[in-house]
Structure formats: structure tokens, C-alpha cells
Design a protein that fits this description.
The chain is an alpha/beta fold. The protein has 6 helices and 10 strands, in the order E-H-E-E-H-E-E-H-E-E-H-H-E-E-H-E. Helix 1 links the parallel strand 1 and strand 2. Keywords: CBS domain. InterPro entries: BON_dom, CBS_dom, CBS_dom_sf, Diverse_CBS-Domain.
Amino acid sequence: MLVREIMTVPAHSLPLGSSMEVGIQLLARAHVSALPVVDADHRVVGIVSEADILRVHLAPDPRAHLRPVPGPEEPWPTTLDEVMTPEPVTVLESADVADVGQLLADTGWKSVPVTHDGRLVGMVSRSDILRLLTTSDSSIRRRLTREFAELGRARWAVSVAEGQVTVSGTRGRREAELAEGMASAVPGVRRVVVTSPSPAGPSPAQAPETA
């Protein structure tokens, strides 16, 4: 599964120089965890996350403290440029979702910008990837059975258990690789096993099968 097949499009973003207030309002209204900041060519030059906003020194509420507390010492930032993370990590739309999922897990990030030729084309989040796991086994099996038949490979048998696809009936390495590639591209598939492919070509007891 490739990132372009699951990413959120269009991606919310803001241009360099946007005000903090505009950024805060967009984060809240769009229910996103981060906003890419782009230049005039729509290239990602920064990213502002919920955490970046929360790090800004808010005025303390005296009702929550036993003794008076001083007000904020630093002025409130006026633009996103002052709080954004510059030159953020991005992923290509052709990237493998499995690799991006590992990146998000390792870093703790909730989302990451997706680019094509350096320009922002979408966002991919942990929730986008988790939605893949909600695809039912029966839906996966129906789709693959249909796609194999359309390819002229109705003899390939498919079983699915908890997202693991098992394909049998392929002939030779090339068919096995084709079956594995097709199955891996289906949303919800977590693992693909192609069992015991027989040597290419029909056995003496079989009539040739046309594709």
C-alpha cells in the first residue's frame, strides 16, 4: 500500500508569515494535529503542531495556585514562523505505508506531510493508517478473488485470517510475485503468504490454461 492511496487530500496548510491566531483557529476547526507551513511555491518549509502551540507561555490562572504567580515574561508570538519547526521531515506520495507507520511509531508524531516534486500534496496520519486495519477479512477476500479472476487467474485460491492473506495455486516465481504484489496493495492486508508455487507450466496431466 502506497501513501498516496490513503493520504488526506487536500492538506490544510498556511503560508509563511501567517498569524498565530489564524493557525490556532485552523488547527481547532480542521481537527488536525499539525499544519505544514509552505512558501510561495507550495514547498514545505516548516510545520506547526499542537505541541508547538502548547509550549507557548500562556498566562497562568491564579485560581489554580495557592500563592500569586507572575504573568508571562515573554511576549506572545505573532506569527507561526516564530514557533514552527523548520525543514520538517516529509514523505513521498510513493512511499510504503508500512515504512511511514514505523516512522510515526518511532517518533511519536501524529502525522507527516506528503510531497511530490518537493510540493505539498497531502498529509498522512496515524489514524489514516489505523483505518486500514478495520477492513474485514471477507472484504479483502472478495476483492482479491475478483481481481485475480479479472486477470485470468481464477485458479488462485485466496484465504484471509486477521488480515493475513494466503494465496495458493500460483505457478512459478513470477506468478507468486504477482499475487503477492496484488495482495499487498489491498487496504487492510497486514501480511501475504504465497504457498508452495508449483513449477511454471502445466503438468503432464493438465491441459494448458489460457490467460
